[in-house]
Every structure is written in C-alpha cells, then in structure tokens.
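Practice problem: predict the structure.
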Amino acid sequence: MNARTGLPRVFGPENGSFAAMLCLALGVFAIAAPTLAFVARESWSTEQGAHGPIVLMTGIWLLHRLWPGAAHAVSRPPLWRVALLLAFFLPGYALARITQVVEVEGYMMYACLLTAMYSVVGGSVMRLLWFPLFYLAFIFPPPETIVAAITLPMKVGLSQLAISILHLIGYPIGGEGVMIYIGQYELLVAAACSGLNSIISLSAISMFYIYIRHQAEWRYALLLVLLIVPVALISNLIRVLILILLTYHAGDAAAQGFLHNFAGIFMFVVALLVIFSLDGVLKPLWNWYFGVSDIAQDDLFARIEK
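Answer:
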C-alpha cells in the first residue's frame, strides 16, 4: 500500500506495471472521452439529462471518499475473465459508436470502463463500491423504447387528472389521450411533463442524499426511495396545471417560452425539497416506532465528510 495516496502497489512503477497501467489509462481515455462528449452534447444539454454533470461530479467525489475503505480488498482477477468481458463489451461499444445511438453507446462505454476497473482492483472492491458505480450510470440517458413505453401511460394519466381538476373548478377544458383543449388553445403533454424525467433526476439526486445519510439503515432508505415516484408524479401534475393555466390566461407564447422551462426547474427543486422534508419528518417517527438510535447514522455521515 502506498502510504501517501492509499493506492495499492499495483499502481506503482516499482513492480514493473507502470507501463501497463499507463496503456490502460490511455485506452480508457480513448473510449470515455468521445462518448462523454457525445452524451454531453445529446443529453446533458436537454431538460431530460440536465442532472448528468451533477451525478458525474458527485459520483467521482463519492468514489474518492469511499476508496480508502475498499483499497484493502484489491485482488486482480484472472486474465481470462477480463478478456471474456472485453470480448463482449468492446464490439458492442464499437457498433454503438458507429451507429451513434447515444443510449447504447453510453452504457457500453461504461461497461468497458467497469471491466477495466475490474481488471485492476477485482470484484471485491467493486462490490464495496457498488453504490457510486451504480449511481454513475445515471449520467447516461435511458433507452428510448423504455422511455416511450413508460411515459405513455404517465402522459395520459396526468392529462386526464389535470383535465378533471380544472373542469371541477369551472374551466372550459376537455381532452383526449395526451391532447388537452382549453378555450381556444390545444396543448400536447410531452414526455418532459410526463414524470419520467423527474423520476430519473430525483432518483439520482435523492439516492445520493439517502446513501450519505442512511446507508446503514437500508429499510428506511428503501422507504425514502419508494417515495420518489409519487413525489415526482405529483410535482409534474402541478407543473402541467401551471402550464395549462398560463396558456389559458397569458397565451401560448407565454406558456411555451421562459416560463415553461422555469416551471420545470422550479417544480424539480420543490420536489427535491419535499424529499428532504419527508426525511426530516419521517426519520424521528421511524426511530420512535422501531426504537432506533441516530448514532449509527451520525457516525457514517461524519466518516463520509472527513
């Protein structure tokens, strides 16, 4: 073990592996750099993937913080296992790179990086670092087919619920499927308003918070994770209602301009604060009901923050 860096000796030049590690690092960079640039251009610049840079930075920070506790478990695996994994993932990455399918390319690239990491530190370390490695996968957009399959019922449900609420309070509103008609205006509930984007973003940011705060209490952490979906859907329902009312009272131009994006950002922040608030309210009740002490949680949080 290197006393200064905490890294195992496999990273040092004294055992003759420095050249091999340098080649591996260059290979990782050659694969990761163009794909990350592609993902940033195609996904991170959109509302759906705006959480990507946050996840990347916090995920790297968490890996850095947790590494000293996992470094003792370093054990390099047999070469044939690494070769077998690369024989599967590298052709898939090359094909995705050629076809320029951002979702597939991102995950294939990440699989290659995980394989490279496995070749150096072994499976035991990766099991200890499972959360940051899983969390970093949120920087890539989900496959379009899955998005379409999930968002359609969400879009229809949100549309119909918004129509019912506004109809009850007297607005001239109707609709069919994802189409909403109010006054002389016609609106389409798009995927961005369906709830999936907020579920993905909220899941990523909230799980980071939950892991830091409640890693040792997995049952309570699971409860908070399950609350992410209803919070995201309710926040998106409120967003749809706001946009419908903006369209009716201020016109289509006002609702589709700056206020449209601002409503999305505002409701995301509100939803995130709701998750934090629910944690603040539920945690004392959980501790009281199960007789749990906060000592384990506080010790973990202090250890992560050191």
